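Weekly puzzle thread! Below is a chain. First person to post its structure in token form gets bragging rights.
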Amino acid sequence: MTLYPFALLIGTLGGRAVRAKLTAAFGRDRPAALIEDMAAIGGALLIVMAVS
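Winning reply:
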């Protein structure tokens, strides 16, 4: 059995919670969205570098 579906669920719900907290802290969604996007791109780059 693979843990991939559980990892997706945890990542999705965790990301949603973090973005909600960032949105509350900034009072707007756009800065939170940009931070979330930068984190996703950075994480993807780390995975690609680790695999290749």
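Puzzle host: Confirmed. Bonus trivia for everyone else. The mean pLDDT is 91.
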